[in-house]
Design brief:
alpha+beta; 3-stranded antiparallel sheet; 5-stranded antiparallel sheet
Length: 221
Protein backbone atom coordinates (compact mmCIF):
# COMPACT_ATOMS: atom_id res chain seq x y z
CA UNK A 1 0.00 0.00 0.00
CA UNK A 2 3.04 2.30 -0.10
CA UNK A 3 4.27 3.83 -3.37
CA UNK A 4 8.07 3.64 -3.64
CA UNK A 5 10.51 4.75 -6.31
CA UNK A 6 14.23 4.99 -6.74
CA UNK A 7 16.58 6.39 -9.35
CA UNK A 8 19.75 4.88 -10.71
CA UNK A 9 22.59 7.39 -11.02
CA UNK A 10 24.30 7.64 -14.39
CA UNK A 11 27.72 7.34 -12.73
CA UNK A 12 28.85 6.13 -9.35
CA UNK A 13 32.23 6.85 -7.82
CA UNK A 14 33.28 4.34 -5.21
CA UNK A 15 35.85 5.45 -2.68
CA UNK A 16 38.50 3.07 -1.43
CA UNK A 17 36.69 2.83 1.90
CA UNK A 18 33.41 1.97 0.14
CA UNK A 19 35.11 -0.75 -1.91
CA UNK A 20 36.68 -2.23 1.21
CA UNK A 21 33.38 -2.15 3.09
CA UNK A 22 31.59 -3.87 0.21
CA UNK A 23 34.28 -6.56 0.08
CA UNK A 24 34.04 -7.21 3.82
CA UNK A 25 30.25 -7.38 3.67
CA UNK A 26 30.51 -9.95 0.88
CA UNK A 27 32.90 -11.99 3.03
CA UNK A 28 30.58 -11.72 6.05
CA UNK A 29 27.62 -12.86 3.95
CA UNK A 30 29.56 -15.85 2.60
CA UNK A 31 30.62 -16.93 6.10
CA UNK A 32 27.10 -16.39 7.44
CA UNK A 33 25.60 -18.59 4.71
CA UNK A 34 28.08 -21.38 5.48
CA UNK A 35 27.37 -21.25 9.20
CA UNK A 36 23.60 -21.23 8.73
CA UNK A 37 23.79 -24.12 6.29
CA UNK A 38 25.82 -26.22 8.73
CA UNK A 39 23.46 -25.39 11.60
CA UNK A 40 20.28 -26.17 9.63
CA UNK A 41 19.36 -29.06 11.96
CA UNK A 42 19.53 -26.76 15.02
CA UNK A 43 17.84 -23.67 13.62
CA UNK A 44 14.06 -23.10 13.71
CA UNK A 45 12.08 -24.91 11.02
CA UNK A 46 10.54 -21.65 9.88
CA UNK A 47 12.98 -19.36 8.09
CA UNK A 48 13.57 -16.12 9.93
CA UNK A 49 15.47 -13.34 8.12
CA UNK A 50 16.46 -11.89 11.52
CA UNK A 51 18.86 -14.82 11.93
CA UNK A 52 20.61 -13.95 8.68
CA UNK A 53 20.68 -10.19 9.37
CA UNK A 54 22.02 -10.64 12.92
CA UNK A 55 24.77 -13.02 11.87
CA UNK A 56 25.73 -10.99 8.79
CA UNK A 57 26.00 -7.82 10.90
CA UNK A 58 28.03 -9.45 13.67
CA UNK A 59 30.52 -11.00 11.26
CA UNK A 60 30.80 -7.74 9.32
CA UNK A 61 31.55 -5.71 12.46
CA UNK A 62 34.16 -8.29 13.50
CA UNK A 63 35.85 -8.28 10.08
CA UNK A 64 36.04 -4.47 10.13
CA UNK A 65 38.42 -4.69 13.10
CA UNK A 66 40.86 -6.71 10.98
CA UNK A 67 41.82 -10.36 11.13
CA UNK A 68 44.64 -10.96 13.65
CA UNK A 69 47.35 -12.74 11.66
CA UNK A 70 50.02 -13.24 14.33
CA UNK A 71 51.32 -16.66 13.43
CA UNK A 72 49.60 -19.11 15.77
CA UNK A 73 46.96 -19.89 18.38
CA UNK A 74 48.51 -17.55 20.95
CA UNK A 75 47.49 -14.61 18.78
CA UNK A 76 43.84 -15.56 18.48
CA UNK A 77 41.29 -12.81 18.35
CA UNK A 78 39.36 -12.24 21.59
CA UNK A 79 36.02 -14.00 21.53
CA UNK A 80 33.35 -12.64 19.25
CA UNK A 81 30.22 -11.27 20.85
CA UNK A 82 27.34 -13.14 19.19
CA UNK A 83 24.69 -12.90 21.93
CA UNK A 84 21.85 -13.14 21.33
CA UNK A 85 22.09 -15.14 18.12
CA UNK A 86 18.31 -15.30 17.71
CA UNK A 87 16.63 -12.04 18.60
CA UNK A 88 15.14 -11.99 21.19
CA UNK A 89 15.13 -15.77 21.83
CA UNK A 90 18.37 -16.72 23.52
CA UNK A 91 19.47 -20.07 24.91
CA UNK A 92 22.11 -18.24 26.95
CA UNK A 93 19.37 -16.08 28.44
CA UNK A 94 17.39 -19.15 29.56
CA UNK A 95 20.31 -20.26 31.75
CA UNK A 96 20.83 -18.71 35.17
CA UNK A 97 24.32 -20.20 35.44
CA UNK A 98 26.64 -20.53 32.45
CA UNK A 99 29.41 -22.83 31.22
CA UNK A 100 32.93 -21.62 30.57
CA UNK A 101 34.64 -22.42 27.29
CA UNK A 102 38.37 -23.06 26.92
CA UNK A 103 40.30 -23.12 23.63
CA UNK A 104 43.77 -23.79 25.00
CA UNK A 105 44.12 -27.45 23.98
CA UNK A 106 44.85 -27.98 20.27
CA UNK A 107 42.21 -30.00 18.46
CA UNK A 108 39.43 -29.63 21.00
CA UNK A 109 37.30 -27.22 23.01
CA UNK A 110 36.69 -27.64 26.75
CA UNK A 111 33.15 -26.93 27.91
CA UNK A 112 33.27 -26.54 31.70
CA UNK A 113 29.73 -27.08 32.97
CA UNK A 114 28.84 -25.92 36.48
CA UNK A 115 26.48 -27.98 38.64
CA UNK A 116 23.12 -27.76 36.88
CA UNK A 117 19.67 -28.29 38.30
CA UNK A 118 16.57 -28.08 36.14
CA UNK A 119 14.63 -26.89 39.18
CA UNK A 120 16.74 -23.81 39.89
CA UNK A 121 19.18 -23.03 37.05
CA UNK A 122 16.96 -22.64 33.95
CA UNK A 123 14.00 -20.59 32.84
CA UNK A 124 11.40 -23.14 31.76
CA UNK A 125 7.72 -23.63 30.92
CA UNK A 126 5.36 -24.96 33.56
CA UNK A 127 5.37 -28.74 33.86
CA UNK A 128 8.88 -29.24 32.46
CA UNK A 129 10.12 -32.79 33.06
CA UNK A 130 13.25 -32.89 30.95
CA UNK A 131 15.68 -30.51 29.30
CA UNK A 132 18.04 -31.49 26.51
CA UNK A 133 21.12 -29.34 25.91
CA UNK A 134 22.28 -29.87 22.33
CA UNK A 135 25.86 -28.68 21.82
CA UNK A 136 27.66 -28.33 18.50
CA UNK A 137 31.13 -27.22 17.48
CA UNK A 138 31.90 -26.25 13.92
CA UNK A 139 34.37 -24.25 11.89
CA UNK A 140 34.39 -22.30 8.65
CA UNK A 141 37.03 -20.45 6.67
CA UNK A 142 37.18 -16.69 6.89
CA UNK A 143 37.23 -16.42 3.11
CA UNK A 144 34.92 -15.81 0.17
CA UNK A 145 33.70 -18.31 -0.84
CA UNK A 146 33.60 -19.69 2.70
CA UNK A 147 33.96 -23.44 3.30
CA UNK A 148 32.82 -25.49 6.27
CA UNK A 149 35.43 -27.37 8.27
CA UNK A 150 34.65 -30.09 10.80
CA UNK A 151 31.53 -30.31 12.97
CA UNK A 152 30.71 -32.32 16.10
CA UNK A 153 27.46 -32.57 18.05
CA UNK A 154 26.54 -34.02 21.43
CA UNK A 155 23.76 -33.61 24.00
CA UNK A 156 23.10 -33.65 27.75
CA UNK A 157 19.75 -34.57 29.31
CA UNK A 158 18.76 -33.03 32.64
CA UNK A 159 15.61 -34.29 34.35
CA UNK A 160 13.41 -32.64 36.93
CA UNK A 161 13.49 -35.78 39.09
CA UNK A 162 17.09 -35.57 40.28
CA UNK A 163 18.92 -32.97 42.37
CA UNK A 164 21.03 -31.84 39.44
CA UNK A 165 24.09 -32.84 37.48
CA UNK A 166 27.48 -32.43 39.09
CA UNK A 167 29.99 -30.01 37.57
CA UNK A 168 32.07 -31.58 34.83
CA UNK A 169 34.20 -30.85 31.79
CA UNK A 170 33.09 -31.96 28.34
CA UNK A 171 35.75 -32.25 25.63
CA UNK A 172 34.48 -31.30 22.18
CA UNK A 173 36.67 -32.09 19.14
CA UNK A 174 37.33 -29.08 16.91
CA UNK A 175 40.55 -29.14 14.90
CA UNK A 176 40.84 -25.52 13.79
CA UNK A 177 43.07 -24.81 10.82
CA UNK A 178 44.79 -21.47 10.16
CA UNK A 179 42.29 -19.00 8.74
CA UNK A 180 39.25 -20.72 10.31
CA UNK A 181 36.63 -19.42 12.71
CA UNK A 182 35.48 -21.90 15.35
CA UNK A 183 32.04 -21.74 16.97
CA UNK A 184 30.32 -23.37 19.95
CA UNK A 185 26.54 -23.54 19.56
CA UNK A 186 23.91 -24.37 22.18
CA UNK A 187 20.27 -25.31 21.67
CA UNK A 188 17.75 -26.05 24.45
CA UNK A 189 14.75 -28.39 24.00
CA UNK A 190 12.12 -28.81 26.72
CA UNK A 191 9.81 -31.76 27.40
CA UNK A 192 6.69 -31.19 29.50
CA UNK A 193 3.99 -33.40 30.96
CA UNK A 194 0.52 -32.58 29.66
CA UNK A 195 -2.59 -34.65 30.40
CA UNK A 196 -0.37 -37.46 31.64
CA UNK A 197 1.72 -37.55 28.45
CA UNK A 198 5.24 -36.30 27.76
CA UNK A 199 5.64 -34.02 24.77
CA UNK A 200 8.34 -31.77 23.39
CA UNK A 201 7.51 -28.08 23.62
CA UNK A 202 7.05 -26.57 20.17
CA UNK A 203 7.70 -22.96 19.25
CA UNK A 204 10.84 -20.86 19.17
CA UNK A 205 10.58 -19.55 22.72
CA UNK A 206 11.34 -22.99 24.16
CA UNK A 207 13.72 -24.20 21.44
CA UNK A 208 16.24 -21.33 21.61
CA UNK A 209 19.64 -21.38 19.92
CA UNK A 210 22.79 -19.40 20.66
CA UNK A 211 26.33 -19.16 19.41
CA UNK A 212 27.82 -19.09 22.88
CA UNK A 213 31.48 -18.67 21.94
CA UNK A 214 33.76 -18.16 18.95
CA UNK A 215 37.48 -18.02 18.22
CA UNK A 216 39.57 -17.24 15.15
CA UNK A 217 42.76 -19.17 14.37
CA UNK A 218 45.11 -16.80 12.52
CA UNK A 219 46.83 -17.76 9.30
CA UNK A 220 50.50 -18.57 9.58
CA UNK A 221 52.73 -15.91 8.12
Amino acid sequence: GVLCSRAKPARVRLTQATRKSASLFGLASAMSATIRRELASLLPAEKDPKIMYQLNSTLFQWLKTGLPEEGGPVGRQPRLSFYPFLDPVSAWGKMLVHPKIGWEEPGRVTLALPKLSLKTDFRKPQGTKNLRMEIATLSCTAANPSKAGNMHTTFIDITNDDEGQEARDIMLPLALQPGELGLVVLRLKYTIEKAGNLQEVAGREWQPVDIIDAYYFPRLR
